[in-house]
Design a protein that fits this description.
By secondary structure, this protein is an alpha/beta fold. The chain has one domain: P-loop containing nucleotide triphosphate hydrolases (Rossmann fold, 3-Layer(aba) Sandwich). The chain is built from 5 helices and 10 strands, in the order ββββαβββαααβαββ. Strands 1, 2, 3, 5 and 6 form a 5-stranded antiparallel beta sheet that branches.
């Protein structure tokens, strides 16, 4: 279950945002993307996700699990994404946010998955809480679990730890990486902070 980029780049008209990138991200590997502000890091993630805003457009291939995603809409690519903001739905409870990430199925199975997810989050009894009542770290963990419950084949992390204080950042970073690696999910991480790079992990620059 690898994520493969073949000569992928992003253009604005005739202007290329970054040099064509060819890369294979293996199962459970977290590859870090770094570069100056405006170098195209977020545009790279959007090209992989398939949601580049016009007038930007991508050239090259994105292949996931051997499937060419070039002409597949973003909602069908099975790629999860976490941003600087957790983007939890404020009108839904913690439990409802988590259920939103799950595929449809029998209610009893979904409730069992919800119970297990809350245990993993160490938030048993929080299913009826509203997101604004949670701490920053709790919100980040719920956002990650919601993305994982969708069973993505790859994950994109766009500065997801940048708004956390230093101590919390380290804790949530390790929590996130351990869950992604346990599930063998190939991951691209965009960050400005060298401390976010997983130990021994690869770094590419755009």
């Amino acid at each position: 279950m690898s994520l493969v980029l073949e000569k992928l780049s992003v253009y604005l008209g005739d202007s290329r945002i970054f040099e064509p990138l060819s890369l294979t991200v293996a199962q459970g590997e977290i590859v870090t993307v770094m570069g100056a502000s405006g170098s195209g890091k977020t545009s790279l993630l959007s090209a992989v996700a398939g949601d580049l805003p016009e007038p930007l457009y991508a050239v090259g291939l994105v292949i996931l699990q051997g499937r060419d995603l070039t002409r597949i809409p973003p909602e069908s690519r099975r790629i999860g994404r976490l941003f600087q903001d957790d983007l939890l739905f404020p009108h839904l409870t913690v439990g409802e946010n988590l259920l939103f990430g799950m595929a449809r199925g029998p209610k009893i199975e979904r409730q069992a998955m919800l119970k297990m997810a809350l245990q993993h989050l160490e938030l048993e009894g929080f299913e009826n809480r509203e997101p604004h009542t949670l701490s920053g770290g709790q919100r980040s963990r719920v956002a990650l679990m919601r993305a994982l419950l969708a069973k993505p084949d790859a994950m994109l992390l766009d500065e997801p730890f940048s708004k956390l204080d230093k101590t919390l950042r380290s804790t949530i970073r390790e929590y996130t990486y351990s869950h992604l690696q346990e599930r063998n999910i190939p991951t691209l991480l965009v960050t400005h902070d060298p401390e976010d790079v997983p130990t021994g992990g690869r770094v590419i620059y755009v």
